[in-house]
Amino acid sequence: MSTPPSSQTTQEFFPSPSPALSLSLAGIFRDGAKAAAAAEVAAAAENMEVEDGEEASVGGGGSGGRREGTVEISSTENSGELRSSRSDDEFVETEDHDGGGEDQGEGKKKKRRKKYHRHTTEQIRAMENLFKEYPHPDEYQRQKLSSELGLHPRQVKFWFQNRRTQIKQQQGRHENALLKTELDKAREENKALREALSKRCCPACNSSLAQELEEEKQLRAENARLRTELEKMMNAVGKITSEEVDQRSTLHFFNGIFGLSQPEAMALVSQGLEELKFMAVSGEPMWVRSLETGREILNYEEYKKTFPFRNLISLYGKGRYLEASRATGIVFSDLPRLVQSFLDANQWQSMFPSMIAKAAVLNLVAPGEGPMKDGVAQLMFAELQMLTPMVPTREVYFVRHAKQLSPEKWAIVDVSLDKIEITIDVAQIKCRKRGSGCIIEDQLNGHCKVTWLENIELQQSTVHHLFRPLLNSGMAFGANRWLANLKQSCERLVFSMATNVPTKDSIVSPNLVFDFLKDDKHRNEWDAMASGSPAQSIVNLAKGQNRGNAVSIQTIKNGSIWVLQESCTNSQESMVVYAAVDNMAMESVMAGGDSSNVSLLASGFSILPDGVESRRLLNTSKPDDKSTEGGSLVTYAFEVLEKNLYAPQPAAETVELVNSVMSSTLQKIKAGLNCTNE
């Protein structure tokens, strides 16, 4: 090894001819001591192999510790060959041109002249093929490939290193290009949104939001003006006795709103009224009694012959069918109150809370006469429901017409028109009424005889198989259910105003499921709040002749929990609704305090018949029991307070808890009723 240079001069170190090591330093040593140390390190690294993909680096240079270059170490076999920095198919070879021999005393050396060897096409192709399969070949693979191609193993090694570096750079450039493209798109979208926000313009329809708001204000003002004119016209119509002037005024109003003229609309309503009166009193062959169930069934062929102008199913496409039913009963109410309840949307909805989800009076078709509005016709909307998510709701638009047939008889008829309003597409309506309604006869003793007729044209829809028999039987939205709910509502209204209603419970014979759920003696068998503790009823207020229609307060766990429960039942359906309440708040309400301050989280059950026809009992403990009802469809609703009120969806833990409580409750009810899963 030659003598190290002084600290004032800069030298490049070359490998000695023998035996040993080739060392090239790209950096500049400004300190003699550091140069000597670097030479010793290079000598100690003799016969040392550089790991695949790594290069030995030595930091040289000034006092700042900045990296000046790299040191490449090779064995004596490769003393004349260095790694190329140009491309992956070039290799550098250096030669010593001393000329006058080595003179270490003078401290001068002549530089070698570099030669670049480019790999042949066959060599590159062979290395490319191996690179596709093995990007990181081992020592054996490099030795084998170098012998086949006539290259040195380190040439092969450096070529693979350079190739991997090139691929990484290409991938990086490609990813950068993709990211740049996405960034440009995001910038363009952001720019467009900012422009739309500044211009208050909707990107979808390219219309000005400010202009739409201004148009909406104008429409609201126009609607307010029309309402004012309508009120003035109605007041004027009430004062005018001339029928001709009355009809002309109503016609002018009606033509301004509907696609049909007022005479055309009233003609259709009159046809529906005649249809209602005929079908309410007719027997066979229009109505045929079923031998299996005993229910009346509409003879559709006879219906088409009697009312050919109503055969409009083909006009609205295939998949439509008629659903008709009829029922008669006595209700506990006077005639004027019933008529008023049918004409007021809010009262009508409150009269049938389990059947009507929404109700509204949209427009007035024809005004009525007198205090009971004889002859009034109004356009209405209703959304009919069952208390289960398995059956879709029915939305229906219809004109309701109230007509006095005799001093003691009124008719309330509902008819859907072919043309309702410009904003309503009749073709999309899946439910239409044909001459439906009721005929009310005053019995002069606080009771009325009601004949209810339901004649609905429907679009076929998919229904859960459990509820299909119930719908096919007509019990879901049929006349029997409407009449049963009407009886229950009238009884509730009468009992709410009565002062001589007994508050103690008496023995009744309700439906088995309904009786099990409402009874405080069985609450500990299914209610999760009870946790097996017995319940006790401390208050029971009746709401009808049937003891099942009542409001009660039950205590659980020795009075620590109060449960407010309401139970309702009729011949078609039953409900049990309950909620845990604060005992102090309930005591305040019972003493005459404000009930609006009591917070409730209501849960409960809806109980419906399954629609399966009644069958005769083969073995019964009671000799007078000749038949029994079919199965029951129980829908359970459970309400719980979510911790995070602003979360878009309930937490998974809450959903899991609710599912667990509801499943456990239903299983306990089945066990309490000795039900088996079949």
From TrEMBL:
Record field: compositional bias (Basic residues): 108-118
Major location category of this protein: nucleus
Record field: compositional bias (Polar residues): 1-13, 72-82
UniProt xrefs under SMART domains: HOX, START
Coiled coil: 169-236
Record carries keyword Lipid biosynthesis: no
InterPro entries membership: HD (IPR001356), HD-Zip_IV (IPR042160), HD-Zip_IV_C (IPR057993), Homeobox_CS (IPR017970), Homeodomain-like_sf (IPR009057), START_lipid-bd_dom (IPR002913)
Region span, Disordered: 1-20, 43-120
Start and end residues of each START domain: 258-495
DNA-binding region: 112-171
One Gene Ontology term of the molecular function aspect: DNA binding
Subcellular location: Nucleus
Name the record gives this protein: OLC1v1014801C3
